[in-house]
Amino acid sequence: MNAKKVDKVATIILYLIAGFVVALLGIFIIYILYRGRNNIFDFNFIFGSQKLGEAGGGIGMQLFNSFYMLLVSLIITIPIGLGAGIFLAEYAKEGKIVRFIRLCIETMAALPSIVVGLFGLLIFVTMFKLGYSILAGALSVSILNLPALTRVSENAIRESSKKVKEASLGLGATKWQTIKKVILPSAMPQILTGIILAAGRIFGEAAAFLYTAGMTGNLYKFDAFSLTDKVSSFSLFRPAETLAVHIWKVNSESSSPDAFQIANGTSAVLIIVVLLFNITARLLGNKLYKAYSGK
């Protein structure tokens, strides 16, 4: 075959592989949503409290814990990961130290979540005496997300700086002004992708939270009209059972007669929340990119 035929065959094969992956993902999502269809539009389930030993129950506080954990984790992860990416791309000089740092980052990116969970248990829960808490869980999952976000930020900043860095510096801007006003806005789509991936891992993480954030708390008897409960729910030093941990707990302990249905409903809600978050973050990121780039 000549080069054109080889190119067409390769293109068709790649399209078939991509279509198979997308179809497999679509079937997986549809299957989860179908199994949890009875609970998706049930507000008593979505916003209700868990009932131990009896049917019914909801995931309201687990849903709140997941969003709260996401917020705290991203507050820790984004500044450090983005700052490390800026340093490696714009300030660090190539050498043995930088290569060693990149090696450490790549090694950390390959760590299993259960290992990070055990590390968080030993360091944050035990040594720093944070106990099973939101802060301990957020610090642990940040260790999982920092390497990936750092690498994404570094690559995005380095690629963007090739196009606009010299032009900005040539017009008299300082290096920090160039990074802040020109490079970062240009790299925003790629950086946002890294943040979305980090957020998805936070939502779906179970092993690290199991060892650091715990599975119980003071929220099963939560009273929305009680000022004390409202304040305590935002405490960083209380246990917090997230949606992913709740799915594992319900399946493993079967603490209620309808445990299987609750697990299916929780899985469906988790999928929908992740999809909505990704879509919202993407739309917001595109608006920010257009605002900064003037498009």
UniProtKB/TrEMBL annotation:
Domain ABC transmembrane type-1 positions: 63-281
InterPro entries referenced in this protein's UniProt entry, alphabetically: MetI-like, MetI-like_sf, Phosphate_PstA
Residue intervals passing through the bilayer: 12-34, 67-88, 100-124, 130-149, 191-213, 262-285
Topology in membrane: Multi-pass membrane protein
Compartments where found: Cell membrane
Pfam families in the cross-refs: BPD_transp_1 (PF00528)
One GO cellular component term: plasma membrane
Cited PROSITE patterns: ABC_TM1
CDD domains listed in its UniProt record: TM_PBP2 (cd06261)
Highest taxon above the source species: Bacteria
Keyword tRNA processing attached: no
Family statement: Belongs to the binding-protein-dependent transport system permease family. CysTW subfamily.
This protein's name: Phosphate transport system permease protein PstA
Organism of this sequence: Clostridium cavendishii DSM 21758
